[in-house]
């Protein structure tokens, strides 16, 4: 019988390069799987999910120079646009008027107005809307309006004052065309220090109080009593300019039956300047002259 001869099994050849190649291949495969998982999870969130918290804040604001208040917020990748809301009163109050807007930018500009400004924003994608950010607020000081110089012409009780210029952006040359004034009367024998003020408005730089004086004289018994003069009357008058320079006057002209200046007087966000004041004593002789 023939003997069978078997060759010994060959031992594997150890090759460091081959071993490293396998290691690198396994690493690449692992990283590829990790990348696929990340893309599968992150991309849908970024592309579809818009309810990512939006953090709004106001950009640094210079009270003396800036005309615009700027709000900014973080970007939401899924957002096609952003809904914004702002108001000038506490937004939790039911009477607060909230102004809405939409922008594709991450900034929103609000025209300057004195008082507290509230702002919030949310991301929007098609019909889907994210949650609004928390309300942020900023207190804005009024631009200072100079004090009018007030004078009284006793011959006809004409009260006049110097015109005041207001600020529109960086322009201080515009003349205010709207004023608010207050007046009160007090007799010489009236020990009360509390004055009953009468408030009114003017589009001119003067107003006649002659008719008011005579009417008040009738109601308050300031006329003669049995031929005797009841005593002198002191007139107190104050007037201040109204700053409606945050917006052009032409912006009010779309309101029916109201001129731009009249609208300026009726807007709730008017900034009232410093009051100029004057007082004058109405004697019997002056009252007699006005009564003719």
Which stretches of 5+ consecutive residues score pLDDT under 50? Answer: 41-47, 245-256
Overall helicity: 10-25%
Q: Cα distance, first to last residue?
A: 163 Å
Derived from helix and strand composition plus strand pairing, the structural class reads alpha+beta
Total number of helices: 4
**Strand runs, count:** 18
- What is the alpha-carbon Rg in Å? 38 Å
Strand fraction: 25-35%
SSE layout and pairing:
Elements lengths: L15 H33 L7 E3 L9 E6 L7 E7 L11 E5 L3 E5 L3 E11 L2 E2 L6 E5 L9 E4 L4 E4 L3 E4 L2 E5 L3 E9 L10 E5 L3 E3 L1 H10 L13 E11 L16 H7 L4 E2 L3 E7 L1 H8 L1
Antiparallel strand pairs: 1-2, 2-5, 3-4, 3-6, 6-7, 6-8, 9-10, 10-15, 11-12, 13-14, 13-16, 16-17, 16-18
Quick structural summary:
The chain has 292 residues and is of the alpha+beta class. The protein contains four helices and 18 strands.
């Amino acid at each position: 019988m023939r003997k069978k001869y078997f060759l010994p099994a060959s031992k594997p050849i150890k090759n460091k390069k081959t071993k490293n190649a396998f290691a690198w291949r396994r690493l690449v495969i692992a990283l590829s799987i990790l990348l696929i998982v990340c893309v599968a999870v992150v991309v849908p969130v970024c592309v579809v999910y818009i309810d990512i918290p939006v953090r709004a804040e106001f950009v640094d604001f210079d009270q003396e120079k800036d005309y615009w208040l700027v709000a900014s917020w973080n970007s939401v990748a899924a957002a096609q646009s952003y809904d914004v809301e702002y108001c000038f009163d506490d937004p939790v109050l039911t009477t607060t008027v909230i102004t809405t807007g939409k922008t594709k930018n991450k900034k929103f500009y609000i025209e300057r107005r004195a008082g507290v400004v509230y702002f919030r924003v949310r991301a929007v994608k098609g019909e889907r809307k994210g949650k609004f950010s928390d309300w942020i607020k900023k207190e804005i000081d009024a631009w200072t309006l100079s004090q009018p110089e007030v004078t009284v012409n006793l011959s006809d009780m004409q009260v006049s004052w110097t015109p005041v210029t207001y600020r529109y952006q960086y322009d201080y040359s515009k003349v205010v065309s709207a004023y608010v004034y207050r007046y009160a009367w007090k007799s010489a024998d009236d020990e009360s220090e509390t004055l009953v003020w009468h408030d009114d408005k003017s589009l001119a730089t003067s107003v006649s109080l002659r008719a008011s004086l005579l009417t008040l004289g009738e109601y308050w018994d300031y006329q003669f009593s049995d031929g005797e003069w009841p005593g002198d009357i002191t007139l107190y008058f104050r007037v201040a300019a109204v700053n409606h320079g945050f917006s052009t006057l032409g912006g009010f002209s779309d309101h029916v039956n109201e001129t731009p200046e009249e609208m300026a007087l009726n807007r709730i966000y008017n900034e009232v300047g410093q009051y100029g004041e004057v007082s004058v004593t109405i004697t019997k002789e002056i009252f007699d002259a006005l009564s003719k």
